[in-house]
Amino acid sequence: MPYKSLHARHNQLANTQKQLEILSNGIFGDGELPYFSEKIKESEQYPLRPKTLEIFQVNLGYMCNQVCTHCHVDAGPDRKEIMTRETMQLCLDAIKNTRAHTLDLTGGAPEMNPDFRWFVDEASKIGIKDFIVRSNLTIIEANKKYHDLPEFFKQHGVHVVSSLPFYKKDKTDRQRGDGVFNKSIDALKRLNSVGYGREDSGLKLDLVYNPSGAFLPGNQQSMEREFKKALKSDFDIDFNNLFTITNLPISRFLEYLIASENYVDYMTALVDAYNPAAVSNVMCRNTLSVSWDGWLYDCDFNQMLGLKVNSNIKHISAYNETLIQDRNIVISQHCYGCTAGAGSSCQGAVV
Amino acid sequence: MQKTYYDPADLKKFGKITEWSEERGKKFFEYYGKVFEEGSLTEREKSLIALAVAHTIQCPYCIDAYTTDGLQRGINKEEMMEALHVAAAIRGGATLVHGVQMMNKYEKLSM
Fold this sequence. Notes:
The complex is a heterodimer. Chain A is of the alpha/beta class. Chain A has one domain (12-338): TIM Barrel, CATH 3.20.20. Chain A is 36% helix and 10% strand. Chain A is built from 15 helices and 8 strands. The N and C termini of chain B lie far apart (58 Å). Chain B is mostly helical. The mean pLDDT of chain B is 95.
C-alpha cells in the first residue's frame, strides 16, 4: 500500500484550519447535531477546566517508520518535525518542578528522535514515577540500532504502551501497512523475552486497540480477554492491559471518513454515544501536551489541530504550572471522540 | 410518503415505538437489554446469534445493527460468515427435511 502523509500529498486536510471548518460546519453548522460546547452545557460541564496535572505528554516529533491510515498525527517517514535537544532541555526544566507523576513520550515514533535516549536518561535522573513510551512496535524491528530498545526500556523501568490494532494479520496490515503485523509480533516477543508483560517482572507492557474502520471500540475488558487468549495461544505472547481508544475524526482518519462517506454516520454515532460521565475523566483535564517545537496544548489531538492552550503561557520556555492550570480547555466537535460510550483516552476507557 | 419501505435513518428511531404503547414498549426494551447482557453466553456469542437470526428473518435494520455491533466487539469477518452459514444450513435443512413429508405423500399416493 503506497501511502503518504496528508502533508506529502498536499491534501487540503493538511491545513488544520480546513479540518476545523469541516468539524464546525455541515451537520453541526446546520443544527442537525449539537456542538460539543452545547452538549457539555447540558450537564453543566462547560467550560471544561483542568483537574490536578498528572501526565506530562511530550511529542518528540512527527517522523514515523509507518504511515497508518487512521493516524491523527499525520505521521510518516516524510515528516521532518523533530524535537531538538534544546527544547527537550526546556521540557526537563519544566518536569523538575511539575506535580505531574507521569512522563508520556509519544510521536510519530518517539524512538526515531536522535536524542530520544538522551532525553530518557535525563528524565530518569529527575525521578519521574511513571515513565511511558508509546511505541509502534515495528520500530524495534526496523533497524539493528533499535533491536536493543527493550533492554533500554527495561534499564529505565519504562512502561511500554504499544499499538496493535488487532490480534489478526489482515485487519492490522490493512490499517498500518503490509508486514506490520508480523513485525509487531516479533517486537512483542522481543519485549517479552526481557520480561515485559510477563508475570511478576514488574515491567509493564500495555497494548492499544483502536477500531480498524468507522465504528466505535467495544467493551475494553471483553476485548482484552480476546486479545490475551489469541496472542497467548497463537504466539505465546503476554501483555498487561489492553486500552481501547476511539479514533478521533481528525487528520487521516477524517480523510478516510469523508472519502468512504462514513463521516455523517460516524459523527452521529459519536454524538449518540455521548456520555456525560466520561467528560469528568477526559485526558485533557489531567494532561498537558507539548509539541516538538515546545508549544503547549490541552491534548495531542488539539496539538494536531493547532489549537494551543487558552492561556497567556503558551510555550514550554515560559512554563508556569500554576498559571497554566488556570485556563479553560479548548474544545471542538472532535472532542465527542473522547466522550463516547465508556470514553477514550491515551489510557483507554475512562468510565 | 417515502419512496422505499426501508430507510436506514429509521433504525435510530426504533425507540419511538414506545410512544404509541408506552408500557409494552418499555417492557420490550428492558427485556431486549436483559437478553443481550452477559449470562451463560457471552455478549460476543449473543451478538453472533443475533447476526445469524437477522439474516434468517432478513431484517435490514438488524443486519446493519449487528454487523456494526460485531465489528465493535472484535468479531472478524470469518466468524460472521460462519455464523451465517449456520443460519443458512438450518434454513436449507428446514426446506429439505420437509422433503420427507413430500416423499411420504408421494409414496402414499403412488401405486
